[in-house]
Write a structure and sequence with these properties.
With about 180 residues, the protein is mainly α. It has a domain of about 110 residues. It is about 50% helix and about 0% strand. The protein contains 9 helices and no strands. Helix 4 crosses helix 5. The longest helix is centred in the first third of the chain and has 31 residues. Bound molecules: heme C (5 copies). One heme C (HEC) binds next to helix 6, helix 7, helix 8 and helix 9. One heme C binds next to helix 2, helix 4 and helix 5.
Length: about 180
């Protein structure tokens, strides 16, 4: 009996030790990329939010959730409260794990730590509102989000050449200082 306990404790420390190691490694690689990057399993997000269900099947307008796209540089990601407008009533499929996770964030008063997908280099500024007011569709840069389950990867390279090609095509500015600080 004693020996079994001893083994159990050794195993436990080994597991804890390797977890700490994995976390430390994660911490290092995070600094170079997106600061909030974390491993949440296959979806890559703390909650597997399906765009196809919301924007496709239920036809919720993009800007209902990404409310600042037409008036600010950043499109904005909705706060938990705007999810709960529906999900205090909509429970999702029976046995599903995602809505209980969502309600957990709400009950704890925590923001959902979404991992960022689209991100330009720090020395570049990208104003959403200028593109929306010029009539450029979300899909031109983000693909057919209505058909995508969990947004996982960049559809467009976000390189300077990509920006400039469209600016040339659409007669928008090529002045270095509009994009660079
Ligand atoms: C019900 C709310 C909701 C609707 C409607 C919605 N989104 Fe989202 N969107 C989110 C949430 C929450 C995230 C963060 C989670 C993620 O990235 O999967 C997100 C993430 C994104 C991202 C990635 C952001 C990043 O991290 O770079 C893009 C691009 C996006 N949405 C585009 C769209 C477009 C285009 C539409 C309309 C076709 C749309 N969304 C409709 C809630 C919504
Ligand atoms: C306008 C109403 C509405 C809003 C706002 C809304 N949802 Fe939903 N959501 C739904 C409906 C309807 C379903 C489909 C439920 C079903 O199939 O049983 C759904 C499904 C989901 C699912 C899939 C559940 C599963 O287990 O398959 C997730 C995850 C989800 N929503 C998360 C969110 C998050 C996060 C937000 C806020 C960013 C949000 N929803 C905002 C109506 C909404
Ligand atoms: C001309 C290309 C383009 C168009 C059009 C565009 N986006 Fe973006 N989007 C980007 C780029 C580039 C980024 C990364 C910006 C950054 O890092 O500052 C981004 C980032 C985002 C993000 C990440 C978080 C944030 O707050 O910015 C969301 C969400 C998003 N876009 C949603 C949308 C929606 C919804 C639309 C349509 C209403 C849209 N975008 C139209 C290029 C575009
Ligand atoms: C799909 C086409 C398209 C892509 C891709 C695109 N843009 Fe634009 N951009 C436009 C249009 C159209 C305008 C609006 C021009 C106007 O208002 O006269 C614009 C305007 C701008 C402006 C404001 C310019 C000014 O005169 O003040 C900036 C800054 C900008 N874009 C940055 C970017 C950056 C950075 C990227 C790449 C990450 C990018 N754009 C990608 C089409 C695009
Ligand atoms: C329409 C927007 C836009 C305009 C105009 C623009 N740039 Fe850029 N530039 C970008 C983006 C986006 C990146 C980031 C590319 C990446 O991360 O791969 C970039 C990157 C760069 C870099 C860094 C190179 C690198 O490999 O990251 C330099 C230097 C640069 N630009 C100089 C210029 C100069 C000089 C001009 C004027 C002749 C200019 N840019 C005009 C969007 C623009």
């Amino acid at each position: 009996m004693k020996k079994q306990w001893f083994i159990a404790i050794v195993v436990m420390f080994a597991v804890l030790g390797s977890l700490a190691f994995v976390q430390a490694q994660g911490g290092n690689s995070q600094e170079s990329e997106t600061p909030a990057d974390q491993d949440y399993g296959p979806s890559g997000q703390p909650i597997a939010f399906p765009h196809n269900t919301h924007a496709g099947e239920y036809q919720i307008d993009c800007q209902y959730c990404h409310f600042s796209a037409e008036r600010a540089s950043s499109a904005g990601v909705p706060p938990v409260a705007s999810c709960m407008g529906c999900h205090s009533a909509v429970a999702g499929p029976e046995g599903g794990e995602e809505i209980p996770k969502l309600r957990g964030y709400w009950e704890r008063g925590e923001a959902i730590p979404w991992n960022r997908i689209y991100k330009v280099a720090d020395h570049v500024q990208f104003p959403h509102m200028r593109h929306i007011s010029a009539g450029v569709d979300c899909a031109a840069c983000h693909g057919n989000v209505e058909e995508i389950g969990v947004i996982q990867r960049v559809e467009q390279p976000l390189t300077m050449g990509w920006c400039l090609n469209c600016h040339i095509d659409m007669g928008a500015s090529r002045d270095c200082t509009v994009c660079h600080y």
